[in-house]
Write a structure and sequence with these properties.
2 copies of one chain form a homodimer. By secondary structure, chain A is of the alpha/beta class. Helices cover 34% and strands 23% of the residues of chain A. Chain A folds into 2 domains: 290 residues, Zn peptidases (Aminopeptidase, 3-Layer(aba) Sandwich); 112 residues, Alpha-Beta Plaits. Chain A is built from 12 helices and 15 strands. In chain A, the strands form 3 sheets. In chain A, strands 1, 2, 3, 4, 5, 6, 13, 14 and 15 form a 9-stranded mixed sheet that branches. A 4-stranded antiparallel sheet of chain A has the order 9-11-7-12, covered by helices on one side. Chain A has a two-stranded antiparallel sheet with strand order 8-10. The radius of gyration of chain A is 23 Å and the shape is globular.
Chain lengths: 410, 410
């Protein structure tokens, strides 16, 4: 019987979150001094938990505990320790420290798993100053391109140089660090970053899909005109047209959501030209953030949107910016999470992750699943981000129980 | 019989427009060196046309021609010579130079009117760097407040100091320079700045009202949330709400326009927070620019808008920023303009001015009217602003004929 140390886990959260820019809590940007200090602390904690620590070529910190059966691939668990600017205290580190708590519990109880266990702190998951996110897990799966490695931050440092600076070996990243089959299973605990669990008063979410994300540019073109001297019937008002597009996006997403997949569509960024009180808008540029548990929805949505927007004489163009396909969680990992929660008497439901995670890339190396825990009012990426010690503990117990079960079943 | 010199008028336009910042045509900002040079040229041209030139306390340039009947108030005509940044070649100076052409024709033919004639170049009509527009005509009518005189431009100079620098006497502006009855009639020629005349293929517009302008702040408040992790039914999307408001503004303006008054309503400026592609908008601030030929419309529109916007759980507030009431043109001046056009065989229609003009302030001193001439595609405040020599000549002839008739009838 292994036992998660609830108080120690909570203390670890407080300690690791405390490595922040003092003037902007909670900020621990990848490649910053705070990040370096935090990761030094983490490596020491890994060692104390009986893990053999190494950095891979992507500067992911890997803490490894040997298994009993030779030749089995590792069970992998973890997340990341960097934050967005002025972020929160749980995004990322909750997963890393829950995984550490499991390793510590194995060590304390003298338990040896059949599989090796790897606890990974993936490098730089959040959108970085290099314009790339999930840097460590991308490289893990061989998805970090030479173009991305050549990208620079505002100081002019390349991503490759930054990876080398923190201990990686960027020249080795042309090949995947792990390939399909190299991971027995990957399980990541994370705060939900939404309100589904809170509203359902459930402690555990079993992720079924991580949404595919499609970004599209929406451009409405009209004619900039004097707001006083241009009669209503002589206008080509791009903002009035954009309003119809925004309404159509909302209506279409509502119509498609839950049939059967999770669908969210958001126009959150808008740029109006000339954006003057006394001028009819001539051009409006928007970004549509489209996320769904189905790749078909990502493909169909823009065409449906176009047919639903009748903008008369205005121009309307939809152009793709980027597409990241849906990640399907492995049924055997989902089942193991649900069964673990049942054994612990913890309520759960399946849900779709609306945000990307390191698990998206880990899924290229083996069967993958995610455990969500509630966070207060769904707030994330803000200083108010919060989960309770109880919620974190419940999640860590489910993670431990899931990994123990997978160690037996796989 | 007096005769407008068409070629001279056109040459004057080219000359006066040529006083511009060479790097940014057509730019002649009030209080700038270009403006000073242009006004020196203008004063000399006034003198050459037989006008006695003086600056009033607001630094309006007044060219005066004596009348034959003692005790009659002056017929006043003119406009302004400043421009917006990167503006056009006709806005303002078309009116000043058409008025000058009339004075020149009187001089050439040795005609003495019953009334004195005053051609006025009003100081700084366009929105100025001091945050005040129509500076000269406001002061003319006693509408330039001490607070406005104390306002500063980015260099820190007060408006009072700037007026003094260009020859005015700001201390004298606490009282109106002219009072109701001091003007026999005010007639201003201006480019339409819209497409009504062009679409109707008519050379002359007879302005019935200058719109009242009401600016209102529209604020929609929701909740900033993660665009992926927040299901559609858990959102309080301020931009989706704002889209409904923008559509309601357009629908309501269309419904009220022409029954019987001119109504235009524009949301041209919008500010979204946080304005990020991956965030549901938490707050949207917009400015509603509402213009109408009826003060009742200005009053009623916001209340009607509020009742038509059902934004559910979102917050929606409408707050007044500023109100400028409708200016009614004088029926006798409108009739004189229409009759003058008829005598010259020029087609005309009444229309409402959607933009503000010096005439708004002149109307506080006597019966006022405006003559609009077409401008190409309605473009104004841009370098492409254009009227043809023929259009300008037709307008100047109607202005001359109107003033001659009013001189007899008033």
């Amino acid at each position: 019987m292994i036992e998660i140390d609830r108080e120690r886990l909570w203390r670890d959260i407080e300690t690791l979150a405390g490595f922040t820019r003092p003037d902007t809590p909670w900020t621990r940007r990848a490649f910053s001094p705070e990040y370096d200090t935090a990761r030094r602390w983490l490596k020491a904690a890994f060692v104390e938990a009986g893990l053999a620590v190494e950095l891979d070529a992507a500067a992911n910190i890997i803490g490894r505990r040997a298994g009993s059966e030779p030749g089995l691939p590792p069970l992998v668990t973890g997340s990341h320790t960097d934050t967005v600017p002025a972020g929160g205290r749980f995004d990322g580190i909750a997963g890393v420290l829950a995984s550490l708590a499991f390793a510590r519990a194995l060590e304390a109880s003298g338990t040896t798993l059949r599989h090796p266990l790897e606890v990974i702190d993936f490098l730089s998951e959040e959108p970085s100053d290099f314009g790339v996110s999930s840097i460590g897990s991308r490289a893990f799966a061989g998805k970090l391109s030479a173009e991305q490695l050549a990208m620079t931050d505002p100081s002019g440092e390349t991503l490759a140089a930054a990876i080398a600076r923190v201990g990686g070996a960027p020249a080795a990243l042309a090949e995947p660090l792990r390939r399909m089959g190299d991971t027995a299973a990957y399980v990541e605990l994370h705060i939900e970053q939404g309100r589904v669990l809170e509203r359902a008063a459930l402690p555990i979410g079993v992720v079924d899909h991580i949404v595919g994300i499609r970004r599209l540019s929406l451009v409405v073109t009209g004619r900039a005109d004097h707001a006083g001297a241009t009669p209503m019937d002589a206008r080509f008002d791009a903002l009035a047209g954009a309003a119809k597009v925004i309404t159509a996006v909302e209506t279409l997403a509502n119509a498609m959501n839950g049939k059967p997949h999770y669908v969210v569509a958001t126009v959150g960024k808008i740029s109006v030209s000339p954006n003057a009180a006394n001028a009819v808008a001539g051009r409006v540029e928007m970004i549509l953030d489209l996320r769904a548990g189905s790749n078909d929805v990502l493909t169909d949505f823009p065409e449906l949107l176009m047919t639903r927007c009748d903008l008369g004489a205005l121009g309307f163009e939809i152009a793709p910016i980027s597409t990241a396909p849906v990640t399907d969680c492995a049924p055997e990992v989902m089942a193991a999470i649900a069964a673990a929660a049942d054994r612990l008497g913890l309520g759960h439901r399946t849900l779709t992750s609306g945000a990307g995670h390191d698990a998206v890339n880990a899924a290229f190396t083996g069967p993958t699943g995610m455990i969500f825990i509630p966070c207060r009012e769904g707030r994330s990426h803000v200083p108010e981000e919060w989960s309770t010690p109880e919620q974190l503990y419940d999640g860590a117990r489910v993670l431990a129980e899931t990994l123990l079960a997978l160690d037996q079943s796989l």
